[in-house]
């Protein structure tokens, strides 16, 4: 059964906002005391928190579907709906949050770091909050907005001061067990270690962590063996300790060739631009298994050549613990120097100011071609949220939406984009919400005199488009002209005479 998981996909659904309430207060001797519908509650957020006490993503691997509570609906007598409870999830220190396409969202590398990864939906306003001096008793309320729903990827990159690198069965797990209280799985076959093992080492007054990660082979940077599963956990280390097997029985292998192959793989692995390449970080070498006579002889033979390359070399035995104290203190001094250098470096705080552009409208209009002519798609956070809040079964709510869109300047931008009366307009990506745009639906919703929940401007029984008005006007003018011509023909035929003409003839 898996006990360590370092990559998992979460399926998140944040709580939806509650709907606002439509209510009119009624009391004795006060039959219509005004609207009193309360607001809907906000949906619960899903928050990730970096916790040093958590070491694996196993819990998320077993339960990847996570949902927070919805907000409650508003009620009469100005009672607001309950907010959904915030759901906090503890993740290991060093967890990287990514989109499913690989885009990085956040790096949880500081203890206590928090990020709202799935915001809950906004609750809808009740008709009490929507009332004004011109709209005394709204017959509608806003709907709650859906919370975030989608997938994220959690990828754990082990945080350790020293990373042990080397071929499988080189003795890395045994070294972790000898230097610390950790007890990783140890066996005499390759790839015994299938996940990183962390150990805490105390060297005098210095305490640091070491990581034993899956063995490295030729082609690991390209994904061979445990490849990238291993190298991901080396990215954050301060120093590398090459553990070389001096008593290997594999033909064609020796400490020098093993080191060269490992260095090639480390150099080929890309790290983020703000980090030092793996090959350029401080590196020590531990020649292991000198408790075996042949191993000690080979270690004494290759040590001068390795030191000539500039490495600091230690001959050790994880069985007899020979040389471990010197190695432990040397690594502790290196880690301590690195920590002091970080503390001494000035902390530069970068503040990025992104003021709103003068001409920023909060939305964009994209013209798309179609079989029936151009289609005008409106993309923007506000219009899309307003669409989600609108009850399209309520004409007054639709009229309120039209007023909000007009005040945002969408009408003017549609004119500039070439839209005409009857053009197809879609708000939002995908199918969205489709309208047959009519510029007449632009203003004075609060001045309509219809009953609550209705809007005369969008009443299908009497609503006319500009084109229809134009056609009716032309028909009226044609009818009048035809009547004039008919009168002229009757007069010429002698069917009637003008009274003025008769009086002139008598005189």
Description:
- This is GTPase Obg.
- Its cofactor is Mg(2+).
- It is found in: Cytoplasm.
- Residues 355-439 form the OCT domain.
- Mg(2+) binds at residues 173, 193.
- It is a single chain.
- By secondary structure, the chain is of the alpha/beta class.
- It has four domains: 7-156, Spo0b-associated Gtp-binding Protein, Chain: A; 162-344, P-loop containing nucleotide triphosphate hydrolases (Rossmann fold, 3-Layer(aba) Sandwich), CATH 3.40.50; 364-463, GMP Synthetase, Chain A, domain 3 (2-Layer Sandwich), CATH 3.30.300; 467-506.
- Helix content is 27%, strand content 19%.
- The chain has helices spanning 58-62, 127-130, 172-179, 227-231, 255-268, 293-308, 324-344, 381-389, 395-407, 410-416, 466-492, 499-506, and strands spanning 7-13, 46-51, 65-67, 87-92, 95-98, 104-108, 114-118, 149-156, 162-165, 197-203, 206-212, 239-245, 283-288, 312-315, 364-368, 375-379, 424-427, 433-436.
- A six-stranded mixed sheet has the order 10-11-9-12-13-14, with helices on both faces. Strands 3-1-8-5-6 form a five-stranded mixed sheet, with no helix packed on it.
- The longest helix is centred in the C-terminal third of the chain and has 27 residues, at 466-492.
- The model is unreliable at 184-194, 223-228 and 441-449 (pLDDT under 50).
